[in-house]
Amino acid sequence: MTQPPIPVPIQPNLPPIDQKRVDDDAAALRKAMKGFGTDEKAIINIVANRTNRERLAMIESFRRQFKRDLLKDLKSELSGHFEDAVLALFKEPVEYDCYSLKKAMKGMGTNEDTLIEILATRPNYYINQIKQKYRALYGKTLEEELCSELSGDLKRVMLTLASAFRSENPNADITDCTNKVDQLYKAGEKRLGTDEKVFYDILTKASAAEIKMINKIYYQKYNHDLIKAIDSEFSGNMKKLLKTIVYISLDPSEYFARRVNYAIKGLGTKDTLLIRILVTRDEMDMPQIRDAYRRLYNKDMIKYIEKDTPSSLEAFIALIIPSGPKLEKEIPESKKTLFAKLHEITYNKKYPSRLRFHALDINDIYEAKWEGIEKQFPQTSDQTIENFKKRRERRIK
Q1: Is it the case that residue 20 has pLDDT exceeding 50?
Q2: Which domains does the chain have, with CATH numbers?
Q3: pTM given for the model
Q4: Buried b vs exposed e over 352-390: b needs ≥16 C-beta within 10 Å?
């Protein structure tokens, strides 16, 4: 039976690749690996500063010019996690996700952490691409592999995510979300024991916008967010999975910033996790992840990585993570200061609950305007926001 075409987002026409630069890069890579020793610095400067399309074109150019396999040459010249990182960037992100999923289910035991990160954070169209590519690469469907490796509720929920039928509704209905909040509360904190199925059904089917609204309403009604509710009702991999769904819905950049921090904190570095994030988020939102890391941990992500990373891999990572056009630079200093204060008030329990609710409301309006989605708040001019803030301040007093 012929599979229906996979829907993908509409993308602008990509510019043609500069073939001369690709050929020059391939020649430079050959020079860096030819003879005694390897010029790792030259490899880093080329590979880390090119797009995925350009890197894939280098493979063919290298074969055409030198009758050699670029990836085999790189593998023979490099070693360790530096080798892993360089070779990973010569895969398309979808292919690398397939590779990571296969590796997570290969051999004795299963790396549920990897399965959760990939299947709970990728959009529907991308999961469909993963499934198609996975079957082409390994001769089995992703669902078959999940069924053989997982069990119980975790298997059921992961298969639901792999079906790629989550809602993508960008407009959350307040009444519907309020009803779902009541269902979640009754299924969890209000009763002895937990009706897990209610949590699974709601969180695996709701869109990111709906989960964001559900989280906000839950906070307003019960003085804490969904994350705390999940923490109190679940444990192990199911807790990790449900929290991932919520975190990625609230702010993808913050979710991946947390993952980077998890990869580099403590003794040693989880290099495979760090490499996967860099490969799959490269050319997507790496500057925003770096900004989110600074907001969450008050540290520069690159400098923190440098503390616990081998020198070659460290230099490579530093180039992959561009400074880019940061959100911080796009916000006037006065608004940036206010945003930081609102964020502090909202999530710091030393402030009264009523004040935290007001800060959350104002924060949402500012955040929406900064993200360029004024259509959701067409009446929200700067003066409107200022008047709104003043009214809130008077009410707090």
Answers
A1: yes
A2: 19-78 (1.10.220.10), 93-162 (1.10.220.10), 174-250 (1.10.220.10), 252-329 (1.10.220.10), 331-396 (no CATH)
A3: 0.76
A4: eeeebbbbbbbbbbbeebeeeeeeeeeeeeeeebeeebe
